[in-house]
Amino acid sequence: MLSTRCKLAVREELKKMGLHFVVVDLGEVDIMEELSAEQLGELKIALLRSGLELMDDKRAVLIEKIKSTIIEMVYHSDEVIKKNFSEFISKKLNQDYTFLANLFSEVQGTTIEQFIISHKIERIKELIIFDELNITEIAWKMNYSSVAHLSNQFKKVTGLSPSHFKQKNDVRTNTKL
């Protein structure tokens, strides 16, 4: 949802400025015209007003692409995540995974794997709260080898088992009613 809003906001700002674009994607905009320094400044200000930032640094753009690829796969893919993340990211960004992993770790201070795990756990929390799938179905959907693997990783990150997390959430929900 957020990525769609960002792309729409960028498109709107480009249209307001009378600029023609070929591609507007997360971390990437292909504008047909050459921008003057003044136009570039105007675009930066317009994007900041929308809560967005124009990134000139190619490394920062690549990091954002890595993040958005992971978020897209974890949150917005209705397909079961059955691909190896490293392979998926490498193919999607057309870059060597080792290069991407080293760059990500250097800039972010964490590994791609840790970033993926934290987002998978957040997604699992959502799935538990919405109560549409049981833990076995969640484990399958999120590409865990077993419920035990999901449970161990969930507990390692949150300090709670998935069932304890669900119980605590159910108690909170019932007391708010």
- Strand tally, please? 2
What are the segments in which pLDDT stays under 50 over at least 5 consecutive residues?
none
Structural class: mainly alpha
Count of helical regions: 9
Beta-strand share of residues: 5-15%
The residue fraction in helices comes out at: 55-70%
Count of structural domains:
2
The gyration radius over C-alpha positions equals 20 Å
Order of helices and strands: HEEHHHHHHHH
Shape: elongated
Any idea what the CATH superfamily of the largest domain is called?
Homeodomain-like
End-to-end C-alpha gap: 28 Å
Could you give the order of strands across the largest sheet? 1-2
Instruction: Please write the CATH class name of the largest domain.
Output: Mainly Alpha
- The CATH level-2 architecture of the largest domain is identified as Orthogonal Bundle
Task: Characterize the largest beta sheet: strand count, sense, and whether it forms a barrel.
Answer: 2 strands, antiparallel
Q: Could you name the CATH topology of the largest domain?
A: Arc Repressor Mutant, subunit A
Would you tell me the overall average pLDDT? 86
What does this molecule look like?
This protein is mainly alpha-helical. It has two domains: 53 residues, no CATH class; 117 residues, Homeodomain-like (Arc Repressor Mutant, subunit A), CATH 1.10.10. It contains nine helices and two strands. It has a two-stranded antiparallel ribbon with strand order 1-2. Helix 3 packs across helix 4. The longest helix has 19 residues. The two termini are 28 Å apart. 12% of the residues are buried.
